[in-house]
Amino acid sequence: MSSHHIVRDAQEPALIIAGTHLSHENIGQLLEWSPVIVVTENCLEEVLTWDIKIDKIVCQDIRYQYVYAISLHQQPLEIWQVANVNPSDFVHLALQKLIQRGHEAVSIIWEDFNSKDFFQYIEKVEIIVYQSYTKGYFVKKGVFKKWVTAGTVFYLPEREIIHEVFNLEQIDSHTYKATQTGLASFQTPQPIFLQESIE
């Protein structure tokens, strides 16, 4: 994978890479739009082998010198520091910084993502989360609509309150499947986290 030098701004979704489990094909699709790329220290060494331009790195403050040294060839870049070594703290700081800089949408690659910790941001930024087999969306109360192919599966990790669905068959308390290709929708009275199956 390679990324050309392109002027980046807050218009396109930024990309936080906090895990490297996603397929190269899916990662390549996320990089097509030349997003601002933020990488967390826990997966930095692997991402540095991908031959892409990194814009920001989040690391533990005591690891700053090491992170700076191994990413010299990526200059210019910013290194944001946190006291803790927890990847969750890295992602929170990255989100807060991106929101401060005017980003309206952020994609996150992170296998250990826990939606409960991130509802606090849904009024400030649109977040899409990529895990190995799912793409997750935070849905504000109201209606979530998406064009899908027949058989697309959606998961609700928690027992969310759903008032109405369209073009979706309920498989069990957490799972819905699109009955035909076309628009599918969920109506909810509260914010929810919804996952769509991906290859």
Automatic annotation (TrEMBL):
Keywords: Kinase, Transferase
GO molecular function, one term: kinase activity
UniProt key word Transferase: yes
Domain of life from the UniProt record: Bacteria
Name of the protein: Thiamine pyrophosphokinase
Organism: Thermoflexibacter ruber
